[in-house]
């Protein structure tokens, strides 16, 4: 049999004669976390139009395809759901704000009279990214929160505070692995324990934090107990 005359050769020749190509049109751009590159990159959002081609020349439309997201660096195409993943910069800000909100909620449950609790909360918030945070700032924010909601120290987690916790944690939780979600709860538990055993109000607030982080009830109990045991 002559070269190029077998089944594979005939198929390749036919593909050169007839085929379908996609013409991509940019319809938007921005920055995203590229799973191919493993970092923040610029992207173009592309809409595609299929064309039936004869000898490489488009002759008939065959409908639309896409849209897709094309990375400006690696040029790979991804589904538009990739844009649901926050960029590294956005993720860091979400995590920082979540830790700050959780620290305030725990302090609001236990009060700001304890120096140890304020010191622990301040160190936690600083480590999360608010490097200029001070004990005085946190105490003032807790006082302002109490004045705004009419909440009294020692009460269970109020509806308004629970909403704030969910607003800060709900968008973050799907992008955190289990150890990351547990770490936030453990940080909150250590703030509560800095001035002694959990109060009922602190336990209620910590349970709300755990639920917002999609941690099951049994694991919340386990983590709160483990935080009481010195490492």
Which helices and strands appear, and what pairs or packs with what?
Blueprint: H1 7-17, E1 18-34, E2 39-54, E3 57-71, E4 77-78, H2 88-110, H3 115-128, H4 135-149, H5 159-169, H6 178-193, H7 200-212, H8 217-227
Antiparallel strand pairs: 1-2, 2-3, 3-4
Helix pairs in contact: 2-3, 2-4, 2-5, 2-6, 2-7, 3-6, 5-7, 6-7, 6-8, 7-8
Write up this protein.
With 231 residues, this protein is of the alpha+beta class. Helix content is 49%, strand content 22%. It has 8 helices and 4 strands. The chain has a 4-stranded antiparallel β-sheet with strand order 1-2-3-4. The longest helix has 23 residues, at 88-110. The radius of gyration is 27 Å and the shape is elongated. It starts with 6 loop residues before the first helix and ends with a helix. The mean pLDDT is 85. This is TerB family tellurite resistance protein. InterPro entries: DjlA_N, TerB-like. Residues 97-222 form the Co-chaperone DjlA N-terminal domain. It holds the Pfam family TerB.
């Amino acid at each position: 049999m002559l070269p190029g005359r077998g089944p594979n050769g005939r198929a390749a020749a036919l593909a050169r004669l007839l085929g379908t190509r996609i013409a991509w049109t940019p319809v938007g751009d921005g920055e995203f976390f590229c799973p191919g590159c493993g970092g923040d990159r610029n992207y173009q959002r592309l809409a595609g139009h299929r064309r039936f081609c004869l000898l490489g020349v488009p002759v008939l439309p065959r409908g639309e395809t896409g849209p897709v997201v094309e990375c400006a660096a690696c040029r790979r195409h991804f589904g538009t759901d990739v844009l649901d993943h926050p960029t590294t910069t956005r993720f860091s800000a979400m995590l920082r704000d979540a830790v700050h909100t959780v620290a305030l909620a725990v302090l609001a449950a236990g009060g700001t009279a304890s120096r140890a609790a304020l010191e622990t909360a301040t160190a936690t918030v600083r480590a999360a990214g608010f490097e200029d945070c001070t004990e005085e700032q946190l105490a003032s924010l807790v006082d302002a929160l109490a004045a705004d909601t009419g909440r009294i120290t020692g009460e269970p987690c109020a509806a308004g505070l629970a909403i704030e916790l969910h607003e800060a944690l709900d968008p973050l939780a799907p992008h955190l692995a289990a150890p990351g979600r547990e770490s936030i709860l453990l940080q909150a538990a250590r703030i509560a324990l800095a001035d002694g055993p959990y109060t009922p109000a602190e336990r209620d607030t910590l349970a709300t934090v755990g639920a917002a982080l999609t941690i099951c009830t049994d694991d919340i109990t386990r983590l709160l107990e483990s935080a009481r045991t010195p490492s």
